[in-house]
Amino acid sequence: MSEMLKVAVLGAKGRMGTAAVAAIDAAPDMELVAALGRSDSLDILVERGADVVVDLTVPDSTEANVRFAVEHGIHAVVGTTGWDAARLAGLQELLAAHPGTGVLIAPNFALGSVLATHFAAKAAKYFDSVEIIELHHPRKIDAPSGTAFRTAQLVAAARAEAGVPAAPDATETELDGARGASVDGIPVHSVRLAGLVAHQEVLFGSHGEALTIRHDSFNHESFMPGVLLGVRTVGTRPGLTLGLDGYLDLEG
Ligand SMILES: NC(=O)C1=CN([C@@H]2O[C@H](COP(=O)(O)OP(=O)(O)OC[C@H]3O[C@@H](n4cnc5c(N)ncnc54)[C@H](O)[C@@H]3O)[C@@H](O)[C@H]2O)C=CC1
Ligand SMILES: O=C(O)C1=N[C@H](C(=O)O)C[C@H](O)C1
């Protein structure tokens, strides 16, 4: 039998962390060596010989956690939001000094969401207009969601590459926020509603037609196949991978 992957979870008592602990515990090829919360020392990761750490914490904590992992040669699978361009650049630099170590930062582990974002980027150049609506549970602390942010970036890049002009919009006066946040020129609207988990619609429009690409996560188990795929793959992909699509064969 091949050796078990030693996996640690950070943020183990949170919504995602709880589901990840259960999924890793149930995986036949993984051993859960640590399930850590906010007040636990990261030294435990080294003491327990973790091969992979899964970070499901908060935007304020994730960067220090991942840097610690990389500095100690531990691969990291990161679901936490808050990785802006400056943080990513710093991490790239650190990874260059630790060339054997892999980090996956995945704004969304749900395979359907990864596909929805991929399809949206493909559709982006064919429509005059595009807007994104993301809808989440009201305990979410960041807006817009990491998924919406990345979707908007990819859609905007595809439109720019194809030379698509800005979407038509005659708005002259607006109440602050009425047209959403602008991410690379794409309007992103954030809804927080009791009863929801994680949902997103990408709305495309042209003369006489509309296309909506919608994905729904109805529970946190929906993210777990992607988390496990990340844990199994990250050690074979040194350096930084942004998005679970980097581990999938979506063009094939
Ligand atoms: N990539 C994906 O598919 C998904 C990503 N997320 C993201 O994952 C993050 C966590 O989401 P939830 O589980 O809903 O949040 P949550 O608030 O339920 O859990 C976060 C947990 O992290 C703990 N924590 C904070 N700092 C820590 C530290 N330094 N070390 C260890 N634990 C620490 C908190 O005490 C809390 O228990 C958010 O950024 C969220 O946007 C959420 C769902 C899916
Ligand atoms: O906080 C959440 O719940 C989620 N966060 C991620 C995000 O910000 O995109 C992924 C998913 O939308 C659920």
TrEMBL record:
This one is known as: 4-hydroxy-tetrahydrodipicolinate reductase
Task: Please give the chief subcellular localization of this protein.
Answer: cytoplasm
**Residues in the active site?**
H136, K140
Name the keywords, alphabetized: Amino-acid biosynthesis, Cytoplasm, Diaminopimelate biosynthesis, Lysine biosynthesis, NAD, NADP, Oxidoreductase
- Which gene is transcribed and translated to give this protein? dapB
Subcellular locations according to the entry: Cytoplasm
Against CDD domains, the record matches this protein to: DHDPR_N (cd02274)
Species source reads: Arthrobacter stackebrandtii
Keyword Ligase applies: no
Q: What class of enzyme is it?
A: oxidoreductase
Dihydrodipicolinate reductase C-terminal domain: residues covered: 112-242
